[in-house]
Design brief:
Mth169, Chain: A, elongated
Amino acid sequence: MKYHASVDITLRQGILDVQGKTVEHALHSMEFGSISNVRIGKFVELNIEAPTQDSAYEAVKAACEKLIANPIMEDFHITVKEVA
């Protein structure tokens, strides 16, 4: 079976998001003062062949833990859908 996976990666809570703070300050200077707590992350898409959706999820999770994300500093959320 073929699956499509999406991975949202963000810095863990409590870790200063310098890029997010920079964007937030720029937005405030552009009169978007009501916007706060800006956090910048990464979005990764990939295709995977696996016997089941659960095994596809586990393979993507292992790839995130070993390479795609930094598990010390980042959290990730995986969505896996079957490709028709």
